[in-house]
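Our collaborator T.R. sent over the components below with a one-line note: 'Predict the complex.' Nothing else. No constraints on interfaces, no templates requested, no preferences about which chain binds where. So this is a plain run: every listed entity goes in together, and whatever single assembly comes back becomes the starting point for the next discussion.
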Amino acid sequence: MTLRNYLILCAAGSLLTVLILLLVPSVGESIEGLLIAFLSTAN
Amino acid sequence: MKILKIVLQMVGFVVLIGAVTIGTLRIQRSSADGATVVFPGGEMVAGELHTGAEPNWSFTDDIFTIELQLNDPMATRRIFILESEGKIYVVSGYMKSFLGKIWKEWAFDADEGNDEGVLRVSNVRYPRQLIRIEEGDVLNGVAAKLLAKYSGVPTPVSAEAIATARADIEDGNSWIFELTPR
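Returned assembly:
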C-alpha cells in the first residue's frame, strides 16, 4: 500500500470512528465499560 | 520486509483508531452531567441541592466513589471519599508520579485556587469548599479510614500502619482535601 493510500485509510477510519461514536451512543458506553473493567482488573 | 511493513501499518492503524476513540469519548463526556471513573464530566445538574444542617456523613462509609465538581474551570471527577470524626475528605494519590501529574489535574487545580465546587452523593448535591490538609493529628483518623476502606486493612488499623500512611500524606505523595460547607 502506498503512503498516500495508507493516509487515506487512516483518515477514513478515524472519521468513521467519530461518526459511529456520535451517532450510536451505546457503542461509546460499551467501550467505556470495557475500559472500566480493564482499569479495575488496579487490583 | 514486506510483511513487517504490513504489520507496522496495521499496528499504526489500530493505535490511531484507539486514540481517536478515547479522544472522542473524552470530549463527549466533558459536557455530560457528572463524571465516570474513566472520563471527567461537565456541570452537575441532576439531584436535589442540599441546604441546612450537615448530615451525618458516616453513610459515606458504604459509598466507594462520589462525584466532585470544581467550578472554575467547570469539570467533574469521580473520586474516593473518606469520613473521619464527622468531617469528609477526598484523596488524590500518586501525586509525585508522572501519571499522577497528568491524571490528577483536579487536585492541582484545587490547590491552586479552584477550590469551590459541588459534591454529589446519593443524588444530592452539596456546595463545598476544598481545603488541603497537609499536616496535623487530624491525618491519623483520615489515614486509618483510608487504609481500612480502600486498602482492605483490618480494623483497628495498627498505629504503625497509620504512621506510614500519614507520612505518605505529609510527604505529598497523597493529597487530602477536607470538603467544608459553603
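Summary for T.R.: The radius of gyration of chain A is 15 Å.
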